[in-house]
Amino acid sequence: MRINRVLKTFRLLLSTGALALCSAVAVGATPQYGPELQGFSFPYPVEKYSFKSQSEALSMGYIDVKPQGKANGRTVVMMHGKNFCGVTWQDSIEVLSHQGYRVIAPDQIGFCTSTKPTHYQYSFQQLALNTHQLLNSLHLDKITLVGHSTGGMLATRYALMYPQQVEQLVLVNPIGLEDWKAKGVPWRSVDDWYQRELKTSAESIKKYEQKTYYAGQWKPEYDRWVNMLAGLNNGPGKKVVAWNSALLYDMIFTQPVWYEFKDLTMPTTLMIGSADTTAIGSDIAPPEVKAQIGHYNALGKQVAKMIPHSTLIEFAGMGHAPQMEDPVRFNQALVDALSQH
Questions:
Q1: What is the biggest distance separating any 2 CA atoms in the chain, rounded to whole angstroms?
Q2: What angle do CA 322, 324, 330 make, to 5 degrees?
Q3: Between vectors from CA 224 to CA 223 and to CA 228, what angle results, nearest 5°?
Q4: d(CA 75, CA 66)
């Protein structure tokens, strides 16, 4: 009887992933994943789209989940943030697919399961073109576009470039709701970004995410995403991962979309965790500048007035990632927003 109880407990721990988590905590070791997240456990197959850009042979990893049950004929493309991947949309993908949507979550070049080129001129236009070519290869001429964080900046650029394709736009705590440079945040060189990124660790990731993404709170389920990033940043491709990250930060800082929100033509929903304080370069900004940036409780309202045909949904007290902080509440709001189209 005692053995049966032990086996039952072991199966429970194994099914929830708690055993693996406890082991990781006990050992205290950061996992090491390959430069395209080789070794990380994915809940869905990762497809690859191969193409050539800037004389480089590249491949984009992407998740393509078909509708569960009756299809509603719509496709949702989900764009990840700077410290996220397509797979971090997992809870939303599950909910949307069961609502009849086809869901595609690509990893942009330089991120996650995609190529980390040694030489690439990053721009939001280039990433949008890459994604457009991927979607063309899948024969998709109409999409609903959802972008989070840096993915919100990219989704905005994509919608501006391909307005006939984007039927509906959803921006989840997008960065770029302000122009940090214009507000006085100092420029940082790519070399300085690179040195900063080489120092990335599980501890530094968790500290930053707890403060900014989750409004000071923490849940055990967030550890998986910390380990994903830490394993990528500390694996055998550490230097090329850090280099691409530095180039991407430079792109984010120097290519604002704020001035063009007024030009969006499709129905747009802003979903904002009001306690978010994300602002690129705030760590080196003078105190008087830092005090003026990253106030999403105000920025969401301001930008909603700039975007024609916009709707604002606020999650009071939530941080930068409401889809992970309270997935049940967030996903219900997302489903409701999409059904309004």
A1: 69
A2: 50
A3: 115
A4: 9
Residue with tokens 């939530």: 318
The single-letter DSSP state of residue 273 is E
Query: DSSP assignment, residue 45?
Result: P
Structural domains for the chain: 1-30 (no CATH), 31-339 (3.40.50.1820)
Angle between helices 90-98 and 327-339 (to 10 degrees): 50
Transcribe 88-141 into DSSP letters. GGHHHHHHHHHTT-EEEEEPPTTSTTS---SS----HHHHHHHHHHHHHHTT--
Dihedral pair phi/psi, residue 329, rounded to 5° = -65, -45
* Whole-number Cα distances in Å, 291 to 90, 185, 216, 317: 34, 11, 18, 19
Q: Distance (Å, rounded) from C-alpha 329 to C-alpha 332? A: 5
Summarised one tens digit per residue, pLDDT across range 197-250 is: 999 999 999 999 998 899 899 999 999 999 999 999 999 999 999 999 999 999
- The answer to whether the pTM exceeds 0.70 is yes
Pick the closest to residue 177 from 80, 70, 259, 77 (CA basis).
Answer: 259
Measure the CA–CA gap between 116 and 108, rounded to whole angstroms.
10
> In whole numbers, what is the pLDDT of the chain averaged over residues?
92
| Per-residue model confidence (pLDDT) at position 28 | 55
Query: Encoding tokens for residue 69?
Result: 């049950």
Strand order in the sheet with 310-315: 47-53, 56-65, 102-106, 75-79, 143-148, 166-172, 268-273, 310-315
179, 256 Cβ separation under 8 angstroms: yes
pLDDT band at 5 (very low <50, low <70, confident <90, very high): very low
